[in-house]
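Blinded run. Sample ID left blank on purpose so nobody reads anything into the name before looking at the predicted structure. Input follows.
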Amino acid sequence: MSGTLFVRCHEPPQLSGEITPPPDKSITIRALILGMLAEGETRILNPLNALDTRSALLGVQQLGAMVYEREREWVVMGGELRTPPGPVDLGNSGTALRLLTGALAGRPGVDAVLTGDESLRSRPMARVVEPLGAMGAEIEYLEKEGCAPLRVRGRQLKGMRYELPVPSAQVKSAVLFAGLGAQGATEVVERLVSRDHTELMLPRFGVPLEIVQGGGRRLISLTPPEQLAAAEVQVPGDISSAFLWVVLGLLLGEKLALHGVGLNTTRLGALRVLSKCSGGLTVHIEGRLGAEGFGRIHTRKSLLAPFDVPPAEIPAMVDELPLLALAATQARGESAVRGAGELRVKESDRLARTAEILRAFGADVEVHGESMRIAGPQQLHTAEVESGGDHRMAMLGLACALVAGEGESRVRDFTGAEVSYPGLLADARKAVEGAEFGLE
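Blinded prediction complete.
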């Protein structure tokens, strides 16, 4: 995918049929890194093969792991880390950069430079580097203070207790990964629970965890084993990619079914919001893939009531908030999202860019600090917008174009979509009637 996306609607578009969303990006990247650290053969079943995950794959290969790609399976042979011959370029993947920083910090003898594209090099890394430094990590900013590229010299770390100042799964995971190479227990305390893929996956690699929740806090305690054991990781569909179709199904759909979707409870905040304000959404839990829940989601066109998302609910929906804001433009009244500052430190300032894209399509949106107000219902119109190379903004632009309806809309710099959703346009052509999609 490259260039500018055009969406031409010859009539009000409608959605129907069945879609299987791409595999989960967060789970795939975590499995690659843990497979690199583990002794033996780790099998990743149904991995996401997209730009971010390929950056992580190439990164673990540079660091000593062997990765064999088979049909719908990656096999990682790990256990022997090495200093890479040159900088490890992680592209646009903040997850890979932050988690690898933690994983390498406690590995004596490894000396690696971790870097990425222009967007990744502008994102804040101090939130990871500072707690790792308190454990004894030796990490150097090579260019701009607080940003990649980072030089990580592995050394023996000391376990500690760390209370997360902001709810961040990446910071939490980086500290826990560092704890794998530390003396003594490493404890992470969070007040608001962020996505817990790391906590679910670590025991499968033979890492003892104790999780205690109470008094408004959640304590995760990790005791490092002598050696991580190889594991099998099954990857469900990515709820963040599926959420594009959830929103469009409620706004435009007849009957739409999404299959094989990951239903991790720490990722379902946006689904819970829409379930309360719409009668057109049903979720069926079918079982577990390893430690992760999965199932089906069914949607049909439905009127939406307005909603108010408080700060405590933001960690469970941080990647879905831009599309949730689009849904709010069609609700019967004013909606609000509060305490969403974490969106400002993603691939772009997603709080500002979400408002910018929605306004371009005719929505009434205001942003004040970390909060957003969205008026509804609004009749959207066609527009031309810029994604800034951010995959979530590319998906938002596509969704807005369909909700706007008849006419032609354009999304510039649509390349970001392949970061997490290869095959997005193929799925759109399959599910959407009354619209034409193309790239220029």
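Unblinding after everyone has recorded impressions. The mean pLDDT is 95.
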